[in-house]
Write a structure and sequence with these properties.
By secondary structure, the chain is mostly helical. It folds into 2 domains: about 10-65; about 80-144. Helices cover about 40% and strands about 5% of the residues. Strands 1-2 form a two-stranded parallel sheet. Helix 5 crosses helix 6 (about 120-130). It starts with 20 loop residues before the first helix and ends in a 13-residue tail after the last helix.
Length: about 140
């Protein structure tokens, strides 16, 4: 989610896209220094009954930055990504991860579902996935 000079997060959304005024108001109210955490984006989505991706799109269109991915993949300072590869001996967990892949990647939503199913932290899943050499994509809020 780094911005080069002259770039904006809004550029990834094509066409004449209008901001939902309720989502915009919630993002403006809950953001700090033009930044919104992943967890808060999901809270807003739940409160308003909208998809998390709609909140993420609004954040992009406001050219705000999404922070503190709940999988530990972006938005932490200074390294941005805070997870470290972690091996597991749990074959059922590895199989669940492999079975949830889409085009060789693990969607963020699937990672969350596996964490819930195995009753482990979301960041533990992303650490294990990282050790397995698998990328997590796409993000539910559209950060990657």
């Amino acid at each position: 989610m780094s911005l080069g000079q002259g770039n904006s997060f809004a550029e990834k959304h094509k066409g004449n896209i209008k901001l939902d005024p309720l989502i915009k108001e919630a993002v403006l109210k809950r953001s700090k220094e033009e930044k919104l955490s992943c967890a808060v984006a999901f809270e807003i989505a739940k409160e308003l009954g909208v998809e998390a991706a709609e909140v993420g799109k609004t954040v992009d269109l406001l050219n705000f930055r999404l922070m503190k991915c709940q999988l530990g993949l972006f938005g932490y300072m200074p390294e941005k990504k805070i997870i470290k590869p972690q091996n597991t001996e749990n074959q059922d967990l590895k199989d669940a991860i492999r079975n949830a892949l889409v085009d060789g990647r693990l969607p963020c939503k699937n990672a969350w579902d596996i964490a819930s199913e195995f009753k482990i932290r979301k960041m533990t899943i992303s650490s294990i996935v990282d050790a397995m050499g698998i990328k997590i994509k796409p993000c539910q809020i559209g950060a990657f």
